[in-house]
Amino acid sequence: MGAKIVIVGGVAAGPKAACRVKRLMQDAEVTIIDQDTLFSYGGCGIPYYVSGDVSDEAELRSTSFHMVRNEDFFEDAKGVLVKSGTRATAINRQNKTVKVQNVASGAEEDIPYDTLMIATGSRPFVLPIPGADLDGVFTISDLHKAIEIKDRIAKGKVGKAVVIGGGAIGLEMAEAFKDLWGVETSVVEFMPQVLPRIVDSPMASMLTKHMRDNDVDIFLGEGATEIVGENGKVTGLRTAKRTLEADIVIMAAGVRPRTEIAVEAGLQTSPMGAIVVNERMQTSDPSIYAAGDCIEVMHLVSGKKFYAPLGSLANKEGRVAGDNMAGIPSKFKGAVGSFIMKAFDVCIGATGLSLEVALAEGFDADVALTAPSDRAHFFPTESIVCFQMVFDRRTRKVLGLQGFGPMGDGISARIDAAAAYISMGATIDDFGTLEMAYAPPFSAAIDSINAIAYVADNLCDGRLHKTTLESFLVWMDDFSTQPDWIALDIRHPIEAGPCVEKFGVDKWCAIPYNEIRKRFKELPLDKKLIILCDAGTRSFEIQSFLKSVGVDQTLVLSGGFNMLRRMGIDWYPGK
What we know:
FAD, five-stranded parallel beta sheet, oxidoreductase, FAD/NAD-binding_dom, 4 domains, single chain, alpha/beta
């Protein structure tokens, strides 16, 4: 036999590396060690298994040609030995052995290696609150727990569910409970918005409204203080503000890298506890590699290491580790943190940095917002999509892109294109000329990714002057905060009329877009005009015209009413 390759961890990065090594070195003796009896499954598919979109858990463990990835499959089809139900307990770097223990029998043995890879993944963070150990409290950590959750629902044991955590997994689980099973579902999130640090407030607000419109209760800015129960079984969740009844509680408060075996072996780890690797996925011991949710990687925008527990990255990292273990120099340069999720009939995605993170990292960051049509306006299935571009004013580099819109490939395609461009350091100008495939059923002639770049270009060059959504909403809640402001609504009178009626002509002036050039002298020039339309495009055009006739005190509300409607603004008359 050739080189002895031992891989600890059998979910994503581990099997990918094992199969890559075996393809490149058929004489290698490749062994995967995993403490679970179910391994090499698509963990990101667990919410969809619970929801019923994936009918059988075996589908999460199957190949694209419908073979279940079990011990026999790896040995017969891949030539890889899998020791499942076997826990790796220690690494002896001097002797190059891994001590393992059979979970069922307790029997121990030392397995020698020439090259070792650690792919131990992550573990869910369990909140240190009373009641966390009650029957009916679950984390989303493995397939066994997913099977148990679905079994309880299917048997009618779950009428009310509470999810702790408004991140992607928490929201996906909330949808899973509500959409198919009709379970009364609540989400409790400690931060003031869902998907904190992943997307910014406008996008998060749109997602929150949509979840609530689909009867998922979301409570923001509330921390779970206690899980309550009777006779050892969960009955509810308590926060500082309320007690929610529950037959099941899902703790989805994030994950932490599982690196105890690496720490005990003396390998270098980061302050957050992730294994430190170089671009070849080597640890501080050149004979030991690591990949997947147990490591940190370079963020290609911030230039700093970050933690990105994503199955897509784990597979890429696993292939790079496999290359290098087989003697092929290969590099994983880093990532930009691309993300997308569905929520009932919409989706939300992001790549790169949010505005909040970009400002914290010291960038001269700003955002452009737009809400155009996702395809030609005359095509029957045309819908509105909302985009936010984060950019650096000094360098004009695009730092991030966020999108929200109907479920489909429209958002995904733009996020994917942006991820590729952002990873190469692309500027606003690059995005403005980015070529996207065009046909009316798929996009507008001016693609939405180009359109958002045009907005950013106008902002960066000082042609467009805007107010933020946050500032505008503060004013709408209390007009006294900006007494010199007045809204200039340039939409059709049928659309603008209810706002004029509600707020009065002293706060809401309505002149249609196509009449401004003739009627601009009617405007109250002692006020600062906040120009509003549906998406913001016409508002900028009117701002430009007004400036040409000496009306300089204007601001545009980018994204306009298309975004306001989707954010669930209470004061909007058409609500």
